[in-house]
Amino acid sequence: MEPVKILDNIYWVGAVDYDIRDFHGYLTPKGSTYNAYLVIDDKITLIDAVKHGFEGELLSRIAKIVDPKKIDQVVSNHAEMDHSGGLPNILKYIGLQKPVYASKVGVQNLGAQFQGAGLNLQPVGEKLSLGQQELHFVETRMIHWPDSMFSFLPNVGVLFSQDGFGMHLASPQRFDDEVSEDIWGPQALNYFANILTLYTDPIGKILEKAVASGLIAQVKLICPDHGLIWRKDPSRILTLYKQWVQQKPKNKAVVVFDTMWHSTELMARELTDALTNLGVEAKFQNLKTSHRSQVATECFEAAAILVGSPTINNQLYPSVADFLCYAKGLKFKNKIGGAFGSYGWSGEAPKLVQTELAAMGYDLPSPEVRYRWAPLEKDLNPIRDLAKSIAEAIKKVV
Ligand code: FEO
């Protein structure tokens, strides 16, 4: 368990979780890391911590640099458990009297999460002295919790950005120049789509403010709490964030569905083919084989989301209801929607999908398409018509 030197007197001392696959309902196919950083100065400062269960890994890395009991203070940029869960045990080991600095809301959240743990929680001001250098704090509410903040070491241009600019990617490499964008790019997008889509407006404003204040111009390294440290080219992830916060639609449609006896699947296949023939990049996403968070990532840059559901017990198919609930929470912007599905006798599901998509603010150029029992080739014209109306609507917005 070796620490990784980032700059003189700044080290990565976090943990690598190769095995995590479910991160509060979001699939993490490449695992994750819980990044924490140690800054050696007159006061030794630990910035962020690790999930409960990984405290030993963090302390063992720190021990290769300095006796962990010599840590003077801890900064918690974000109170979510994957970065704070280890704090009670870490503080118990290094000394419960050591201050844990957080934003005002962070102090409230940490206090509520760790009642009875005896943490010495202190709200940060604008700056904190480490001795020779100062740590500056930037409030970043809703990237992605109300308590979230960035810490910045201006003398070396190092930004500790907690969840911002992160990704769930477990690897032995720590830096952007050690892993190709072919590997990290999809994970960064997956992370943004599932964790940050809901907050694109506040993120856009924080980025604008950080540019206007001159902060971004001073940044030489970005150290997030998950995934790679941006050492070679921090501007690359900043550029992607500036693009992603716009939620600009591409000429792409996601056909997401589940099926009971393959009839809704047949409609989904025809819809995918028809959209492709009309020049739209169409993604076929069967919820039996695609996790809701993978589908959400496909949806992020798509202009259209077309949802198919069979009817069961007068209701939506449960996996489709699950996806709609998840997508509703993410509050995608600038989407065109469509609904379809087969049924046996009552057939409520396509209408229920259409109603949900309307409630989510999607543009619905066509009524829902439903078919009773199993459609033959000749019965699929309404699906081809749906594809045409969707392709036309996409052309108007891309
Ligand atoms: Fe990585 Fe919001 O916690």
Written account of the structure:
By secondary structure, the chain is α/β, with parallel strands linked by helices. The chain folds into two domains: 4-244, 4-Layer Sandwich (Metallo-beta-lactamase, Chain A), CATH 3.60.15.10; 250-395, Rossmann fold (3-Layer(aba) Sandwich), CATH 3.40.50. It contains 13 helices and 23 strands. It has helices at 55-63, 81-84, 87-94, 104-113, 181-196, 200-212, 215-218, 234-244, 263-277, 292-300, 318-330, 349-359, 381-397, and strands spanning 4-7, 10-12, 15-17, 22-23, 26-27, 32-34, 37-39, 45-47, 73-75, 99-102, 120-123, 127-129, 134-139, 149-153, 158-160, 221-223, 250-257, 281-286, 302-308, 311-312, 315-316, 336-343, 369-372. The strands form six sheets. The protein has a seven-stranded mixed beta sheet with strand order 1-2-7-8-9-10-11. Strands 12-13-14-15-16 form a five-stranded mixed beta sheet, with no helix packed on it. Strands 18-17-19-22-23 form a five-stranded parallel beta sheet, with helices on both faces. It is elongated, with a radius of gyration of 24 Å. The mean pLDDT is 97. MU-OXO-diiron binds at residues 78, 80, 82-83, 144-145, 163, 225-226.
Map the helices and strands.
Elements: E1 4-7, E2 10-12, E3 15-17, E4 22-23, E5 26-27, E6 32-34, E7 37-39, E8 45-47, H1 55-63, E9 73-75, H2 81-84, H3 87-94, E10 99-102, H4 104-113, E11 120-123, E12 127-129, E13 134-139, E14 149-153, E15 158-160, H5 181-196, H6 200-212, H7 215-218, E16 221-223, H8 234-244, E17 250-257, H9 263-277, E18 281-286, H10 292-300, E19 302-308, E20 311-312, E21 315-316, H11 318-330, E22 336-343, H12 349-359, E23 369-372, H13 381-397
Bound molecules: MU-OXO-diiron.
MU-OXO-diiron (FEO) binds at residues 78, 80, 82-83, 144-145, 163, 225-226.
